[in-house]
Every structure is written in C-alpha cells, then in structure tokens.
Amino acid sequence: MSSKFKILNKKNVHNGFFKMNEITLKYKKYDGSWSNEIKRELFGGAQVSAVLPYDPENKKIVLIQQFRPGTISRESNNYLDEIVAGIIDPGETPEDAANRECLEETGCKVKNLRSIQGYFPAPGSSESFYHLFLAEVIAPDKESIRGLDNENEDILVNSYTFEQVREKMEKKEILNGLTLIALQWFFLNIYKS
To answer: pTM to 2 decimals?
Structure first.
C-alpha cells in the first residue's frame, strides 16, 4: 500500500513542558491527486492513559479537580471535574500507567481494569493518543487532596453517587472533553437506569 501522505519538512519549534513541531506535508486526496503543500504546528505526541474509577458495590464514581491553565481565557471555573489521566512513561504499558495514575491521583487501588477505547483527542493540532479505561475501585468515603509534589500537583478527590454525576452532566457542569466521553460511555454501557 502506498503512503497517503508525504512529510516534506519537520522541525521542532518549541521544547518545553509541551513540545511543538512545525510540519510541512502533502496528503493524497480522495480523487487520487496530491494536495498542495500545507504547513501546520503540531503539539508533540503525548501517549496518555485515562481512567474512570468507579465503585460498583457502593455505586459511586471518583472524580478529581485541579487547576487547568487552559481555562484562564474564559469566564468559567478553573478547577474542572475530571477523571484520572497521565502520560505513559517510557517502557510502561497503557495498563501499567492507568493503574499507577489511579493510585497516585485518587489513592484508589485498581481491582479490575477494562479498556474502553483508544482515540486521538485533537488530531488537527496534536499527535497525542489517549487510552481510556474503566477501573473498579473502592471509592473513598471522604474528600482528600492528592498528587505528587515533584509534579506540582494539587488534586482534590471526591466520590459521587451515579445520580450525582448524571446530575452534574445534565447541568452541564462537566467541561472536560475526556471526562465527558468516559461518563457518556459509562451511562450508555454500565449504568443505564
């Protein structure tokens, strides 16, 4: 099979917390011809494991909140309800990262891990790929603050009943796309009532 794209040039334009590359390419159009050259900036490709921790016995979902710099340009809460997520370390499997991140961010040890879906969260601007999991845990019975000091994390952990989470969704309080995808999947496939 012949390639459907040709990379003509790729250069790193930023190498900080996030990496950004400028890429020049052509791609094969549906009619078989080649596009004109296009130039795009792409965020470097973080490979991420994301986890929706839930307690099937107590019928609870564990959500976290932390400050998110991407929210500062809008009149909204800068601390979003989210599921667990983190970058997969070199040599680590997505499953290993899911287990590690769930424990680090919520204090919950995963009893059973189920793959939901892998996907590109923003393929027009990023090379990132997310591995989304459902994790059975024992939900904490009280609010706590978690996170790693060396990553400057300050994470608020809370457990909510399934109905409380559904109500947050109905009130449009869940603003993180990754979290919305996970919760919509959960309410379509696990808790349907």
So the answer is: 0.90
Measured distance CA(42)–CA(4) in Å, rounded: 18
Segment 129-160, tens digit of pLDDT: 999 999 999 999 999 898 877 777 789 999 99
82 catalytic residue (yes or no): no
User: Which residue among the candidates 37, 151, 167, 173 is catalytic per the annotation?
Assistant: 151
Q: Which residues contact 63 (CB under 8 A, 6 or more apart)?
A: 81, 82, 83, 157, 158, 159, 160, 165, 179
Q: What is the DSSP string of 84-145?
A: EEEEPPTT--HHHHHHHHHHHHH-PPPSEEEEEEEE-S-TTTB--EEEEEEEE----SS-EE
Which residues, including other chains, have CB under 8 Å from residue 64's CB and lie 6 or more apart? Answer: 81, 82, 83, 84, 105, 106, 146, 155, 156, 157, 158
